[in-house]
């Protein structure tokens, strides 16, 4: 019998949907003949005693989840998500650079340093990428510090705010769509697919509007109803990062598909698995039994 550590924090367990998903994961592991144990930050010393580690708390190189991932790696324990994936996906300059190097199709993208923020450069970017443009602070997550700008004045205002937090900002062509595809990939194979329907009051999957947080709608979609090129693009984008678990956000416009983000540690508790009931079975088998995560069943 192997031991699966599921790394969580109190914020993870404060959400009923996340808690139910974690219990399902534990039950699946036990049903396969393994044991599963929730590991809180205070219990991080237990990680070397596990046979695999599944991180289900917000990942970032600056917090305890990265320490947990590194402990697993240094102990020779399979871990999702691995430290390299966390480093890449937590820095959008790093992430988009990997996409570019691998030839993954993304919106027109530029990285702007503090010294390049000027009216001349901004006008050049509008000329090359069109209007509006999307500005991103590289360490952002959950659509925070992602803003759409329609003028040079707006651009400079947002850019000067973002550059206080980072040495670079990401500038991207705006790709309009009613929804994002979210393609879940595990170990190089499709894990699930769903649509994130964007609220009409924003262009992001999560945003604060008039003091209220609005979220996208999530609709699980069977594999045979997902455009094959969207699945292939998701798998290609995941391969540019590693062999772990990723959620790839893709927009399709005028017949062209573009990778918007690659997320390590993607959510699995919002209905993504409605048409993919074996998600946790495949994750557990991949971690504890070394089985390829092929999309069977």
Give the structure's gist in a few sentences.
With 297 residues, the protein is of the alpha+beta class. It has nine helices and 15 strands. The two termini are 24 Å apart.
If you had to describe this structure to a student in words, what would you say it looks like?
This protein has three domains: 3-82, Rossmann fold (3-Layer(aba) Sandwich), CATH 3.40.50.20; 108-173, Dna Ligase, domain 1 (2-Layer Sandwich); 176-288, ATP-grasp fold, B domain (D-amino Acid Aminotransferase, Chain A, domain 1), CATH 3.30.470. It has helices at 10-13, 16-31, 64-74, 83-89, 92-101, 119-129, 152-162, 228-239, 279-288; strands at residues 3-7, 35-39, 52-55, 79-80, 109-113, 133-136, 146-149, 168-173, 179-186, 189-197, 206-209, 212-215, 217-220, 245-253, 256-264. The strands form four sheets. A five-stranded antiparallel beta sheet has the order 13-10-9-14-15, with helices on both faces. By secondary structure, it is of the alpha+beta class. Helix 2 crosses helix 9 and helix 6 (119-129) crosses helix 7 (152-162). Helices cover 31% and strands 28% of the residues. The two termini are 24 Å apart. The chain contains nine helices and 15 strands.
């Amino acid at each position: 019998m192997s031991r699966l550590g599921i790394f969580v924090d109190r914020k993870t367990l404060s959400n009923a949907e996340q808690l139910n998903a974690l219990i399902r994961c534990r039950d699946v592991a036990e049903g396969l003949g393994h044991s599963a144990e929730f590991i809180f930050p205070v219990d991080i010393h237990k990680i070397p005693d596990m046979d695999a580690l599944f991180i289900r708390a917000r990942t970032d190189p600056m917090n305890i989840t990265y320490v947990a991932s590194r402990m697993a790696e240094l102990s020779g324990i399979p871990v999702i998500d691995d430290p390299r994936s966390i480093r890449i996906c937590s820095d959008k300059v790093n992430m988009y650079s990997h996409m570019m190097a691998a030839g993954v199709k993304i919106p027109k993208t530029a990285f702007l340093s503090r010294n390049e923020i000027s009216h001349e450069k901004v006008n050049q970017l509008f000329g090359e990428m069109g209007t509006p443009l999307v500005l991103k602070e590289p360490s952002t997550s959950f659509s925070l510090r992602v803003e759409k700008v329609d003028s040079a004045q707006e651009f400079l205002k947002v850019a000067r705010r973002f550059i206080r937090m980072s040495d670079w900002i990401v500038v991207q062509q705006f790709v309009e769509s009613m929804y994002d595809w979210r393609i879940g990939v595990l170990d190089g194979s499709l894990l699930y697919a769903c649509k994130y329907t964007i609220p009409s009051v924003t262009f992001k999957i999560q945003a604060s509007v008039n003091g209220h947080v609005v979220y996208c709608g999530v609709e699980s979609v069977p594999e045979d109803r997902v455009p094959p090129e969207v699945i292939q693009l998701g798998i290609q984008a995941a391969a540019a990062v590693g062999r772990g678990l990723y959620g790839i956000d893709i927009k399709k416009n005028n017949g062209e598909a573009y990778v918007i983000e690659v997320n390590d540690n993607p959510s699995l508790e919002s209905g993504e698995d409605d048409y993919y009931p074996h998600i946790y079975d495949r994750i557990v088998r991949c971690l504890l039994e070394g089985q390829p995560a092929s999309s069977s069943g």
